[in-house]
Design brief:
Helix content: under 10%
Number of strands: 3
Oligomer: single chain
Mean pLDDT: 80
Structural class: mainly beta
Distance between the termini: 33 Å
Order of helices and strands: EEEH
Number of helices: 1
């Protein structure tokens, strides 16, 4: 499977194994300058921030669109 994200051979998080978990931003701060844990999905050496996908409208038309699940 191809991706625009380079994943090293032997990575524990290839596209076929996408673990979900919580993380904090690089500076430990969110927009309101307080520590915030976020929900994300690891892909290679990166974390995909699901709250940012939600803010961008990528969950429109799904049951997740009307929730605040990624912003808690």
């Amino acid at each position: 499977m191809d991706s625009f994200i380079h994943v090293e051979a032997g990575s524990h998080f290839p596209l076929q194994n996408l673990p979900y978990g919580t993380f904090t931003t690089a500076n430990g701060k969110d927009d309101d300058s307080s520590n915030v844990w976020r929900v994300g999905c690891a892909i290679g050496g990166y974390v995909l921030d699901l709250a940012e996908l939600h803010r961008a409208g990528l969950f429109k038309g799904t049951k997740l669109d009307a929730t605040n699940v990624f912003h808690q």
